[in-house]
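The instructor's notes for this session suggest beginning with a concrete chain rather than abstract definitions. Hand out the sequence below and ask the class to guess, before any prediction is shown, which regions might be ordered.
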Amino acid sequence: MVGLYLKSTSVPYPAMTKDYSGQNLRGRSFKGQNLEGANFSGADIRGADFSNAILKEANFSRAHAGVSPYWGIRVGSVIVSLVLSALSGSVMVAGFLTAFMAICLVLITSKYNYTVNGLVLTVTATFAIAGSVALILGLVLSLIIAKTTFIFVARAGLIPPGVGVVGLVYTVLIGSHSGILSTATKKDVSGFLSWSIAIIDEFLKNTITNTGGTSFHGADLTNANFRACILKNTNFGKANVKHTKWFQSKNLDRARIGTTYLQNPRVRELLITGEGQNKLFDGLNLRGVNLEGANLTNASFMRANLNEANLQSCNFSRTKLKQTLLESADFTGATLTGATIEDWGITSHTKLHGVRCEYVFMRSPTPDDPNPRRKPDNWNENFADGDFADFIQPIFDTLDLYHNSGVDPRAIAIAFKQLAENNPDAELEIVAMEKRGSDKFLLRAKTAVTADKSELSAEYFDTYNQLKALPEREIKLLLAEKDSRIRSLETMVVTALERPNFYAETYNNQGDTMPKKESNFNLQGAQFGGGLVDAETVNAHQIGGNITNNAQEQPTETKNIDTKTILILAANAKTTPRLRLDEEVREIDAGLQRAKKRELFDLKQRWAVRVQDVYQSLLDFKPQIVHFSGHGAGDDGLQLEDETGKIRLVSTEALAKLFELFASNIECVVLNACYSEVQASAIAHGGAKAHRTPER
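After discussion, reveal the predicted structure:
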């Protein structure tokens, strides 16, 4: 039977059927059907139409797609007639032969109701007109038509693999026309022939695929499996191929692949073989690609887009992932030992479950900086199982407030407090402060997922810039009106600016932190809602140790507005000469009890004070008078105690800044310590009235 087969018929299976494994489905139509999870493994789907079908997680493993052999024979018979006419050596004879074959085809195919009359009559008319063309042009056209026929037959799969199509064409045609061709310019004819055949080759590729091949045009192939599937002359135009499996598929390069990641030959080879070791994929758009189980050792994906990619169980050992986009990528079970992850773009949606990693490098070595920043830092130490995910997992959904120059800690503190009060639903929580360069500062705050970070940032900087423009006197008045806790944030900002190592390390998308490591300045859990700080601890290197800052532990007694709180701070380290501090405090208490207006004073005491106790006590009791009893060290500062009772020196500068934060409330500071004149002068210069008692 000869004819042109252009239309597919509807599949005679019930709509709910999902198991088509091993069946002959040639030319069937599944157009627009919901076949999610259907099984087509081992089926013959040549010529089938899956256009716009839903084929999520469908199984096409070992299926045979492409052009139906009957379609190829029917269409090929028309073109064979053109070859026979070309081989006649005369354009005029070719026209008569073509017309004769066309009439025969019309008579034969009319019996089977196939519509090819238009096609055959068009071909007949074309070659009849060609009778007036010169003989050399007739030879060239004969060559082109003949070679086109062989290309078509080869593309349709009608010639076994390995047959030399081009050689066969030239052997038959050039041999039969050697006398004529010798009188022509062979070089010119050959060049024209190559150019013509290239155009026809591409045209036939698309024509055969579009009209006779298996079609997945516009289909949803998310997570579909084409393992070991023959895909020659298959149409994937506008199909969704997210997470589609191509492992061991065949003839994918002969399919119509649209504008997806399949366009790149290197990517196709990687998807088919799963072997990408030592290869470069820099800058490629691999969004949604499925590389599950691929060997990618020593490969490079620098600046590549791997967003939403399936990277499960991949081997990324020693792979370069510098500036790689990894939003919603799935690394479950992958190996990352020795990978370079400088500035990689992981997010809260990047899956890192079960990642195997002994160590990573945070930087790509350069001539100026050859240090790759290995983590863990100790080259003899490796991550334990599960540690890498804890180490690298950042705190996400953050609001990054980057201050370029002229950083004003007071304006930062007030602006952020106001931002938190105006936007309680944003759930602002400071997670990092970091000095950048010589005069730049980054304040990073975690937010609710639904928060509009753009609006929050704009509101913050509007307030911040207005505050910076205020005169000094108005800033001080504004600070005096605020809750005293705002000063705690101010001092943290000041310290972060003065000490580069004083910042929160709880978030760093480069992973430059260590698991189970206590940062120098940890603000985890700090809530900026009703109060400025509501964290359990604030670790501050400048004033040291853990500072409890829980509002529920604040004194709840109500005092008369005129009551003065006297705070006594006593420190006598084990390694220093013993002072009778208890006797001194007893005398102070007794003197107050004998005073006529003793109800106006409230005595508070703190013993064996450590550095953090000073700050905490000032914050808790808000004293008007502070009395320190202990040892002094002249220019080196005052001697407090550490966790073990040994000496801990606090510098003069640190003390001055600390008391300056509470200057609006503190009226008098008494330093009953040897050689403490320099500290008294510094504190007095900062705004508080400091007095030094004579050396004992």
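Then share the key points. The mean pLDDT is 74. The two ends are 122 Å apart (CA to CA).
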